[in-house]
Each structure stands twice: as structure tokens, then as C-alpha cells.
Design a protein that fits this description.
18 helices; transmembrane transporter activity; POT_fam; Growth Hormone, Chain: A; transmembrane helix; 64% helix; MFS_trans_sf; two-stranded antiparallel sheet; mainly alpha; 2 domains; membrane
């Protein structure tokens, strides 16, 4: 599965890392519009993760979901490769191997060509976005949580190694393939990514007989809606003081044969009653009109476990909301960071470093800090504090590091502006460069990578652990949905900033993100994100201190595997 993840990540990064450049050059969009559309595509990719999680948990099961969504992803790459081959040959002329981002060599696309392009990339978004949460949870399913001394520790390590594979798969995509795309070899790069996705599907299929397979656990959305409806119906009913008086599967001796919903609930770990969100307990109150000896009405009476599942989601909601601004900072790596790099000196030892290629330092940062944390930080803290850092503490550290990354990016932009030149380049018809080397971006990329280890990797593990068995894929999807919301928030922030600072158009004085970045103030944009992250950190500390974990009961003799 780790090799499969590396190949899939390689394939999607080939599309995603240079998408903002493709849109600016081939699709002929301005900087702000290209950044927004790239962020919206990434955000939509993450939105599809929620659908993928619900489908895998409720209907198909995780193995089937992984297989089908990988095929959709592969089909989207094939469509993009074919469309790019036909489109680029007709619309662009990359003379003498010059940089593919030479806008003067591409004519504006027609509406039909644009439609084909957007259909293909959003099919890729569907396939990859829906696949990721199912794959993460399916990988975690391969470890037996009951073996506390063995496989549970291996499961925790799996999340770290999964993200190492996830990032190592992107190394070639942001180096060799990004360099190819930078030279105009978009079609070849897309076909290579298609071949990688095909190899990933084959590798995944080869492990079919060795995987642990789990049955779907019922419709999580329907279960949540049932609790809300039942609690609303019983809003005038007095909630019992004793939790034992609330309904749970098989309670009250009503002679009820367990219906399909109860059977699926019983299969999972049942949840103990908790005292918060008492209004939701009304959904599990057995009222006088409830018939005995009959199948219960799921929209009028829910089990304690169903109620507690919704409570689990509500408890995690503040933590999830606080992660959105982190994701806003993270999303700059695939948009404004690249535009910043395009206005810097990219030459090194006679070679030209592709702007998207700087993402390799984020990947190296992730890989390095996964091992630094596991073998250094965790052990040192364990000796000093007699315990390892909690997941919530690690996520807080991630927020601090992301704030530092944005401050660093702002300082780098200030230095870039000090070294700005007025020499017109072949990259954009009227753009200017800076003599500042692109290597100045290394610290901000490394810091983003370090923050990802502490925030995003830990958040996935945290949500996966804090939700019951039937909602595990939803836990993975919540992490990815945070990235989605962050990308959309970034687009909104760019739009607001442009509306406020560019009232006279992108050529207006004071415009923060103009077509010519040497005339703008991208540094202020980065500092605004840093300030928002700092305020977000304060709110996160409050919510994290109030959070309490969820108690579980595992039914005796329950067999979770199919």
C-alpha cells in the first residue's frame, strides 16, 4: 500500500504542482485568477474526500472504494493526456525548448478546449480526492488494535510512513516532471503520470488476497440525521437522569428482533454515554408511545451509540475549524509560493530550477521531521515529561511552525523586492524579475513540511482514533476536508485582498498581487496569513484544553472482520 500511495501521489502531483503555471501560461489567466482556480481545484479535490469516506464506510467498503476511485482517477489522467496532446500541439509553440511558461507562444483556448480541460482535471479531483480517505483508513485496518503491545504501535508508525510515501511520491513530480513541464513537455509529463497511476492500480490489486477486508458499517449520514430528527421529535420529553434509562441495542426487554440498523451498530464498538450535548440524549429516550414487541422506528428512537457518534463529531468540530487557517497557509505552497518563485533568479550552476520544483524541499522537510520526531523529539520529551507529546500538543506545535513559515515567506518577499530588476523576461510579456536567488525559498518550504508532520499527519491520526469504527473513513476525510476548506478560504482571501488593494485594476499602485509582482506587496499578504494563524492558535489552545476523549466499549466476542 505504501508503494501504491507513492505512485498515486506522484501522478496527482504531476498535475497539481504546476497547475497554477499551466493556467497562467496555457490558459492565459492572470496571477490572482490562476492562483484562485488552482486553489479551487485543490479544494474540490478535498471536498470529494468526504463523499469518498461516506461511500466507503456506508456502501462499498474501503477496498472496493479504493479500487473504483483509482480507476476513475486513472481515466481522468488518460483524458487529460489526450486532451493536452491535441490542445497543446495546436495552441502552443515551444520554440527551441524554451520555457513552457512563455505566454506569448500560447493562444487563448476556445470554450470547447477549456471545457475538456476542466472536465478532465475535475475527474482527477474526484478520483484522487475520494480515494485518499478510504486508502488511509484501509491501511489502518490492516493493524489489530486489540494487540496493544504490538500492532497498535505499528499502526501509529504507519501514519508517519504513509505520509513519507505520500511525499516521496511527489519528489519526482516536483523535480524531474516539473522541469519537463517547465520546458513545455506537458503532454509527456501527463502520460508519465498516467503510467504511474496504472502501476499503482496494479500493485494495489496484487495485494487483494493478503488484505484484511471489512464490511461497510451502515450509512453514517443517515444515522446522524436520525439522531437529529428523533431529538427534535422528543424535544419536549424530559431527559432521564440515569444513562441506563436511555435506549441501547437490546435494552428494555421489549422482545424486539434486532433490525438491520441495530445489527450494524452492534458490530461496531459501542460508546459509553457522556454528559455533554444533553439535548441529543432525547433521541434515545423511550417514550410511552413507543410500541413494544415491534421493530423500533429509527427516526423516532435511536441508540445511545448513535447519539454518541454525533457527539464525537461535534466534539471534534472546534478542532477541525481551527485547522482551516493552517490549511490556508499550507495552500500557498501550490499557488503564491510558485508565483513568487517565478519572479526570482532560478539559475543554479548553469541549470534552471523550475518554480514548482522548490516543493521538493517541503517533501524533504516532511520526510526528515517524521524521523526527527520519532527518534529524537518524542524520546527527549518522554524522558523529561515521562510521557510522549499528545496529539493535540503536536497539532499546536504545527500551528506555531506554519505561522513562522508565513513570516519567513513575507521576509523573503521583502528581500526579493529589494533586489528587483526591471529586465523584461520571456516568462511573461511584461513581468520583471529579481536578482535574489530562488534558494531563499528553502526555509519557508522546509517549515511548511515540518508543520505538516506536526499538524496534518497528527490530525489524521487524531481524527481516526477519536471516531468510532463506523466513522473511521469520515475521520480521515475530516483531515482532507480541512485542506479543502483552507484552499477555498485562500481563494476568498485573495479575492478580498484584490478587491481592497486593487480598486483601480492590477496595475493600480498598492495592489498586493498584481501581474508584475515587483509592483506588488505579496509580503503583506503573507503577513496577514501569519497574523490569522497566530489568532487561530489562541483559539485552538482554548478548544484543545477543553477537549475530552471518547470512552469505548467493545462487545465481547465481536468479530469485526468479514
Amino acid at each position: 500500500m505504501l508503494a501504491n500511495q507513492a505512485l498515486v501521489t506522484f501522478a496527482v502531483n504531476c498535475v497539481g504542482t504546476n497547475l497554477v503555471t499551466f493556467m497562467a501560461v496555457v490558459m492565459r489567466l492572470d496571477n490572482a485568477d490562476a492562483a484562485n482556480r488552482a486553489n479551487n481545484w485543490a479544494g474540490t479535490t478535498y471536498v470529494f474526500s468526504i463523499a469518498g469516506a461516506l461511500i466507503s464506510d456506508s456502501y462499498w467498503g474501503r477496498y472496493k472504494a479504493c479500487t473504483i476511485f483509482q480507476i476513475i482517477f486513472l481515466a481522468g489522467l488518460v483524458e487529460l493526456s489526450i486532451a493536452s496532446h491535441l490542445f497543446l500541439q495546436r495552441s502552443c509553440d515551444f520554440r527551441h525548448g524554451e520555457a513552457g511558461r512563455q505566454a506569448q507562444h500560447c493562444r487563448p483556448p476556445t470554450k470547447a478546449e477549456s471545457l475538456v480541460f476542466y472536465i478532465s482535471i475535475y475527474q482527477i479531483a474526484l478520483g484522487n480526492g475520494a480515494y485518499q480517505p478510504a486508502a488511509t483508513t484501509f491501511g489502518a485496518d490492516q493493524f489489530d488494535e486489540t494487540d496493544a503491545a504490538g500492532e497498535r504501535k505499528s499502526k501509529s508508525a504507519f501514519f508517519g510512513y504513509f505520509f513519507v510515501a505520500n511525499n516521496l511520491g511527489g519528489v519526482l513530480a516536483v523535480t524531474a516532471l516539473a522541469y519537463m513541464e517547465d520546458k513545455g513537455e506537458w503532454v509527456l509529463a501527463f502520460w508519465i503520470s498516467t503510467a504511474a497511476a496504472l502501476a499503482g492500480v496494479v500493485l494495489f490489486a496484487l495485494g487483494t488476497l493478503r488484505y484484511r477486508h471489512f464490511l461497510p458499517n451502515g450509512n453514517a449520514i443517515v444515522s446522524v440525521c436520525q439522531v437529529i430528527v428523533a431529538a427534535t421529535k422528543n424535544r419536549h420529553v424530559k431527559t432521564p437522569q440515569q444513562a441506563e434509562d436511555l435506549y441501547e441495542d437490546g435494552d428494555h426487554g421489549d422482545g424486539d428482533e434486532h433490525d438491520e440498523e441495530d445489527a450494524k451498530i452492534k458490530k461496531n464498538k459501542m460508546l459509553l454515554h457522556t454528559p455533554d450535548f444533553r439535548c441529543l440524549d432525547k433521541a434515545a429516550v423511550v417514550v410511552a408511545t413507543t410500541p413494544t414487541g415491534h421493530r423500533r422506528r429509527p427516526w423516532s428512537l435511536c441508540t445511545v451509540t448513535q447519539v454518541e457518534e454525533l457527539k464525537c463529531i461535534l466534539r471534534l468540530a472546534p478542532i477541525w475549524v481551527c485547522s482551516i487557517l493552517y490549511s490556508t497557509a499550507y495552500s500557498q505552497m501550490s499557488s503564491v509560493f510558485i508565483e513568487q518563485a517565478q519572479a526570482m533568479d532560478a539559475s543554479l550552476w548553469g541549470l534552471t530550477i523550475p518554480a514548482a520544483g522548490m516543493g521538493v524541499f517541503e517533501i524533504l522537510g516532511v520526510t526528515a521531521f517524521v524521523f526527527i520526531y520519532s527518534f529524537c523529539i518524542a524520546r527527549i520529551v518522554s524522558k523529561v515529561a515521562s510521557r510522549e507529546p499528545t496529539e493535540l500538543e503536536r497539532m499546536g506545535v504545527g500551528l506555531v511552525i506554519s505561522t513562522l513559515a508565513m513570516i519567513t515567506a513575507g521576509v523573503v518577499e521583502q528581500q526579493r523586492l529589494k533586489h528587483a530588476t526591471t529586465t523584461t523576461t520571456t516568462r511573461q510579456a511584461a513581468a520583471s524579475l529579481s536578482s535574489l536567488t530562488i534558494l531563499w525559498q528553502i526555509p519557508q518550504y522546509v517549515l511548511i513540511g515540518a508543520s505538516e508532520v506536526f499538524m496534518y499527519v497528527t490530525m489524521t491520526e487524531f481524527f481516526n482514533d477519536q471516531l468510532p469504527e463506523g466513522l473511521r473513513s469520515l475521520g480521515s476525510a475530516m483531515s482532507v476536508a480541512s485542506m479543502s476548506a483552507g484552499n477555498f478560504a485562500s481563494s476568498l482571501l485573495v479575492t478580498v485582498v484584490m478587491a481592497i488593494t486593487c480598486k483601480g485594476g492590477q496595475a493600480a499602485a498598492g495592489c498586493w498581487i498584481p501581474q508584475d509582482l515587483n509592483q506588488g506587496h505579496v509580503d503583506r499578504f503573507f503577513f496577514v496569513i501569519a497574523a490569522l494563524n497566530a489568532m487561530d492558535l489562541l483559539a485552538y489552545v482554548v478548544f484543545a484544553r477543553r477537549y475530552r476523549p471518547v470512552p469505548l466499549i467493545k462487545p465481547a466476542g465481536a468479530d469485526e472482520t468479514s
